[in-house]
Amino acid sequence: MVKKRKVKSILGEAAMLGVCVIFFIPFYYLLVNTFKPAREATVSPLSLPIQSFTLDLYKEALHTINFWSSFGNSILITEVSVVIIISIGSMASYAISRRKNRLTQFLFFYFLVGFMVPVQTTLIPLFNLMSSLKLQNS
Questions:
Q1: Which are the contacts of 130, defined by CB distance < 8 A and separation ≥ 6?
Q2: Cα–Cα dist 53/35, whole Å
Q3: CA distance 20 to 30
Q4: DSSP per position, 64-92
Q5: Measured distance CA(30)–CA(22) in Å, rounded
Q6: Which of 22, 26, 34, 46 is in the most buried spot, having the most CB atoms within 10 Å?
Q7: What pLDDT is attached to residue 22?
C-alpha cells in the first residue's frame, strides 16, 4: 500500500515537472533571444548568447517607446485607482456587513460573483463590444 502511494506520488511529481518544463520553454526562448542579435536568434534560437551577448535590443526598446514616461503614467494611474478602490470599497463593505436586508445580500453576492469570474473570460466580449462601437484605435 505504501509503495503504491509512493510510486503514484513520484509519477505525479514527474508529470508536474514535465508540465513545468513545457511551460518554461517559451519564457526561456524569449529571455535568451533578447540578448542576441536578430541573425543569431534565427540561426540558433535556444542557445545561450555566449559569443555575442548584447543589450542593444533593450536600449532600442527604451528609446523608441519612451519607456520611463509610460512607466510613470502607469504608476500614477495605478496609485490613484488603488486609493479610490480602497476608499470606496471599504465604505461599501462596511455598509454591506452591518446591514442585513435583501439589497445588501444581493450586493454581497453580486460582488462575490464578480470576484469569482476571471477577467480573462470577459476579454473577448469586451473586444467585440469595442469593435462594434468603433472604439478601437481611436
A1: 136
A2: 6
A3: 16
A4: HTTHHHHHHHHHHHHHHHHHHHHHHHHHH
A5: 14
A6: 34
A7: 94
SS3 content of the chain, % helix, strand, coil (to 5): 80, 0, 20
Among 77, 78, 36, 72, residue whose Cα is nearest residue 56:
36
Mean pLDDT of the chain, nearest integer:
87
Distances (CA, A) of 62 to 56, 58, 59, 70, 76: 10, 6, 5, 10, 19
Structure confidence by residue, pLDDT tens digits, 121-133: 989 999 999 999 9
The terminus-to-terminus CA distance of the chain in angstroms comes to: 65
Grid coordinates representing 109 are: 453576492
Cell of 72: 510613470
pLDDT recorded at residue 26: 92
Do 69 and 61 meet the contact criterion of CB atoms below 8 Å apart?
no
Interatomic CA distance for residues 4 and 36, integer angstroms = 48
CA distance 73 to 87: 21
Backbone angles phi, psi at 132, to 5 degrees: -70, -30
Q: Are 97 and 108 in contact, with CB atoms under 8 Å apart?
A: no
